User: Which sequence fits this backbone?
DNA sequence: ACAGTTTCCCGTAAATGC
DNA sequence: TGCATTTACGGGAAACTG
């Protein structure tokens, strides 16, 4: 029998997409302990079907009965595994939608999957039943962020086993609860959760400036339903896209702790200012819904004033064709004299760029030029090349230099 | 009733992917003319099912009967349209594969879809039958290039209506036939076919150097099955990926005729050499299986010798995040003195770059810097900026210039 | 083991329906 | 009509299978 490639989104077990295989192993079933003995003693039919329906109805496709045996019930667990189950919406005319909660969006609709068992023991038929924790059913993966938010909020705030009306009046959470959940979203899928500093930045996004966020209340709407001020997306959608970005494109850098990520611009300025020019840090975009990452570095202008500079955030699109480590290592800007230089020298606080990112760069992947070579020699130091060019120009047209001696350019810049 | 978004790959009508909807409207049916009268006079059941099977068997899913009426049979056509048909492979145990031609790969397997009609006319039942041209059934879109090659070769070389054994001994084609088909692959999906020059380049790839390709024979293996010399892919796979590249990423430029595309390196050198430096042309990558495009330009080195330069081909990946017109307009290289300059000035033969590509560039899409601005002023001409940098350096460390006066660099370069 | 083939399913785009 | 939701299917990758 075919094993599904990835039976449901593995880190988000209580969200089911129609048409995509899932197994009941990914649910936390209620285990009626007192019935364990009977189940394990006899063969039984274990038959799943969908129970508590809300506005939508679903049918379970796939093998929906199974004969349990002792081997499958190892370590005393009641669960029998059904693989290759899929859900399909039942579209009976238009009468299906007897929705008592039309206000709920689909990702707030909670469903229970009930599994029934008939046990025959010494001629006696016993009906057993167990059900999943509430699940959210989606039809397109683009609904996953909101669906998962529902699962998080539910499990953060209730111990009920079947409160499918939870989102008709969703309770508020405290910042402490939310912070733990947010950090867990990182620590459960990467090697690193969120630091106090990162969490504080996030708290400020949700609650505004405040001395101490502990105990502050956060509504479901604030977390997931309302757009952030001046933005076209909610806090959670923004954050979830960043989580996705981290997992798919910059996991290694995140695991190393090289990505400060969440930091306000004020604090960024405060910590970078005292640092030498070329010090930089990596930060997530605050304006991009899709998740973006950028870097900010310290620079001194000609007058010696310290400035912060940053690049437009890199999107997933761009990271598809180049790794972020390569981007950092190769990033160059034109200075005031049209010379290419790298403004990134030390990863904050003081890690040399090469030391941090060198090992994540591709080893100068031998390019395969279709013809000819590279005309620029890159061995001479910049300054020498510069002089060489000047001399070439002078050789071609010596009078230019004399003309320039009179220009304001030289007048301004020449010493003495 | 739902209309399919795109019922089958629209330009490649005789290839069917399992699980993807198709309609019989995309096939050329045999129309038994003498029966037209009967059909049109009466309602009839039009019932499709799959007929001639080879190693694989397929079932047709979807509504497979239909009552014909006069309205549907407009302009005297026999065809009734069945939408939402899909094919699914029939997996009966392992006995299904009674393959008489195990040597054929799946994209060489030809299938006929037969439609049956029962006509009741004045108490008489008449059985009618019509079938599609041979179709190729694939299970993944990655099989499309080879599948379509089969359709092309078949229709190029035979007028048979049901020669499903065609590929057990595929006939050879002449270059003239192949050339017409290849050009048609472009002209049917873009506004421009292939020129004689482009076709000649392709002929050379298939047949090697030759004075006159007319009448030369090309085998099916050469066209589609064997890898090209030194390459890991066949001629057709290479070309089809280029067609795909053109359609998805550079259609407008192709339609304008700006893309020479297929040109040998020898000929490229020959036509570019007499042109002034900065003249360039656009050419498809010969080494990339996935389809790539590059440009070659004329350059004069310091000694005044004319050179050809080209950039590594751009792939679909890269064109996803930047348009090719933008790449051309923004392309800069470092010259010998570490200064950024654009080596692309005139599109061959002599179209100013801006004139050709300016209108296809995004209008300097106002970037949204997360912080700070751009520190480099871009208004001074290169040479002045160069001098400015020199002077800055001298101001910081005047002794450097004196040291350099003694170095071999100056010794070599200085006049007199 | 391996290559040809199919399955799985995300993610974009389009269609649907309330 | 607009927006929430579902459907369609290309494309990458994993799984299957002779």
Assistant:
């Amino acid at each position: 029998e075919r094993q599904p490639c990835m039976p449901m989104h593995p880190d988000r077990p209580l969200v089911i997409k129609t048409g995509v295989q899932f197994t009941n192993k990914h649910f936390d079933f209620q285990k009626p302990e007192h019935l364990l003995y009977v189940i394990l003693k006899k063969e039984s039919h274990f038959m799943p079907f969908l129970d508590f329906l809300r506005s939508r109805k679903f049918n379970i496709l796939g093998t929906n009965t199974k004969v349990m045996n002792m081997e499958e019930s190892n370590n005393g667990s009641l669960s029998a595994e059904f693989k290759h189950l899929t859900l399909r919406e039942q579209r009976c005319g238009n009468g299906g939608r007897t929705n008592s909660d039309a206000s709920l969006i689909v990702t707030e609709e909670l469903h229970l999957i009930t599994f029934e068992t008939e046990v025959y023991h010494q001629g006696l038929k016993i009906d057993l039943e167990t059900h999943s924790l509430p699940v959210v059913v989606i039809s397109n993966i683009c609904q996953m962020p909101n669906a998962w938010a529902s699962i998080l909020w539910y499990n953060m705030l209730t111990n009920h086993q079947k409160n499918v009306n939870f989102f008709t009046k969703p309770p508020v959470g405290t910042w402490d609860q939310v912070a733990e959940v947010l950090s867990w979203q990182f620590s459960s899928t990467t090697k690193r959760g969120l630091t106090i500093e990162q969490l504080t930045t996030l708290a400020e996004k949700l609650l505004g400036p405040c001395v101490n966020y502990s105990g502050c209340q956060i509504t479901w709407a604030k977390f997931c339903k309302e757009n952030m001020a001046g933005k076209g997306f909610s806090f959670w959608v923004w954050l979830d896209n960043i989580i996705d970005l981290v997992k798919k494109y910059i996991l290694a850098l995140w695991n190393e702790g090289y990505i400060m990520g969440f930091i306000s611009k004020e604090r960024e300025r405060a910590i970078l200012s005292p640092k030498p020019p070329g010090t930089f840090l990596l930060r997530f975009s605050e304006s991009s819904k899709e998740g973006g990452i950028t870097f900010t570095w310290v620079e001194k202008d000609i007058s010696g004033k310290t400035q912060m500079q940053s690049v437009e955030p890199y999107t997933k699109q761009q990271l598809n064709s180049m790794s972020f480590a390569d981007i950092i290592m190769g990033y160059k800007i034109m200075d005031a004299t049209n010379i290419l230089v790298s403004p990134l020298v030390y990863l904050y606080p003081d890690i040399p760029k090469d030391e941090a990112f060198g090992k994540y760069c591709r080893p100068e992947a031998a390019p395969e030029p279709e013809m000819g070579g590279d005309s620029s020699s890159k061995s001479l130091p910049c300054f020498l090349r510069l002089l060489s060019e000047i001399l070439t120009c002078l050789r071609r047209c010596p009078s230019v230099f004399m003309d320039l001696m009179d220009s304001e350019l030289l007048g301004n810049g020449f010493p003495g």
Observations:
- Chain A has a mean pLDDT of 77.
- The two ends of chain A are 86 Å apart (CA to CA).
- Residues 2-6, 18-19, 89, 105-106, 138-140, 143 of chain A lie near DNA strand D (CB under 10 Å from a C1').
- Chain A touches chain B through 61 residues (CB under 8 Å).
